[in-house]
Predict the structure.
Amino acid sequence: MSAGWTEQAAYFAGRHVVVTGAAGGIGRATAKAFADAGAVVILLDRTQAQVDEVAAWLPPADGGAAHVGIAMDLSDPAAISAGLAKVRAVSKEIVALVNVAGIAEDALVHMVSMASLDKHLQINYEAAVQITQFITRMMLRTGGGAVVNVSSVTAIDGNPGQLAYGASKAALINSTRILSMELAGKGIRVNAVAPGVIDTDMNRNLDEAARERLLQRVTMGRLGKPEEVASAILWLCSPAASYVTGQTLRVDGCM
Amino acid sequence: MTDQLFQGQRILVTGANRGIGWATCEALAANGAHVMAGTRSGGDEFDAKLAALSDQHGVPVEHLPLDLTDADSIKQAISTLRKGGTPLYGLVSNAGLTYNALFQMTQLSVARDVFEVNFFGLLAFMQGCVRLMSRQKAGAVVNISSSAAMDANPGRSVYGASKAAVMTLTKASARELAPLGIRVNAIAPGMTDTEMLSSMTDEVIAEVEENTDMQRRGQPSEIAAAACFLLSPLASYISGQTLRVDGGLRP
């Protein structure tokens, strides 16, 4: 029989999920959405102080297990490997992975250094692939799970000044499709969200004119809240989305 | 943890008697909605089904007679909705005709019939519903499109075109209605276990499943769950989108 959302979200009660970039705007809201559903959240971000702060801020998980913060430098593959070993030590059964972590350093085409391009691809794309490889290998052993990659509308629409950022986010969309092709038949659904202009630190640095220009394109006439991206992510990871895979869902206030 | 998604909100489903439409009524009721089941004809058996659903979830479930090919019927239905106590919050435009025909065998009269229901009927009824929603400056619409709208499958030129028209209508109307607090999205189901499958041979069904990441067809309840999401506050910043619910169908 048909289940309501309350029942569908209760799937996460007491189960482990992993959120990268957990100290940022969308990451923090995503961790909160999972914790509200009763999940035990493994939080990844650059420093231990950052993830500890979020872990302490989250409501307790169902069953009382503590949320765990693990520091991970995504610019360093060896550090990622070491951090992932710590994740496995916390739990061998992960039901959801959300790749939120990302950087955005805007520059006009002729000003983009190859170092900056590499850095965007490493942190926004390659680190996500490395983490996804590790976690989905665990999921294959435990009967499946769900992955959500946080891309961007920039990956689809393009945005002047975001050559490096856009490329890394577009790569995430393509890997979402391919991971779904390879893994959905084995019980792992893989989707992406493409947020529009969300009220996070990434957009807080914009000057007033740039902010206005962006908002003119959003027909809802406002910035999105990190919680509004998080609720879409939670839904995509939940059993309610059992036939949704390989998709990129725009959460953009109708741009 | 969460309260029910649609506590007390009135939501209407067209083509509610079976398949995705009925599954959507069930899912809405499970989420606390006041369900309006729009169908061409009712009858005792259908009334009993509605009463059982109402009892099961403790929510009102009503029948709304609605023929999308008849302007008077649409007018009548909107007037009924206007008079009812609870304002209309949501609409799921699910009613549709299917049509399989090779392009050179396509009959213009049937093509017109398909567009009459899938596009013009949906358009006219959605206009009426949106007028009601705009009074309280809150509402959500989910139109049921199809993967055929994007994938352009052989034999589906007319059906696919009618569903592509729905996608474009969804996006353009979403842009216009955003300032009124009304969100409009669409779902593009892949191959779903409904009566529509009876028009396909077992061989074709197996081929499509083979070509789907999840290696299986979808269930009506899985489309319904996506409709509930898009109607709900969980999707408060999502509008103008067409979400494929297709198990990873490869075009």
Remarks:
- The radius of gyration of chain B is 17 Å.
- Chain B touches chain A through 49 residues (CB under 8 Å).
